[in-house]
Amino acid sequence: xxxxxxxxxxxVDIEKGYVLxxxxxITAVQQxxxxxTSEGATATVKIKVVVAKPTIDxxxxxxxxxxxxxxxxxxxxxYNDKGDEIGxxxxxxxxxxxIDIEKGYSIxxxxxITAIQQxxxxxTSDAATATVKVKVVVDQPTIDxxxxxxxxxxxxxEADNTV
Length: 163
What we know:
mainly beta, 4-stranded antiparallel beta sheet, two-stranded antiparallel sheet, 8 strands, 0% helix
């Protein structure tokens, strides 16, 4: 027995020593404070399939593809921060995926994108998230002509950076 909370949800502990088994049919009835009971609601016990979360490689502002890892053969679905699907694709045999972002959509700095992984039976993973960043591009340095037996290499770069 369990009480229905103010949010309309309930949880009932299974009797100690009893283990639900696959295919078992369970029934729940609801009883009001006057003792009146509802008709029974039934459910069949299933084995819970756990699908691992995919990973998302760091996405950058304006990227046209999202990459990451998952379980080979599964489908990864990408959503924008409004919950709209912006791409989907299959995880390759090497465990990686590359998904094109829907034409007309551009991911942007600060946006939190979400990825879920779905197996062939439709079981889905918990969501993985990543925040889009601005890609910082560091200019390559120049190298002054080096000569045989030189003891130093010199050139130019951005002030305060390390070469």
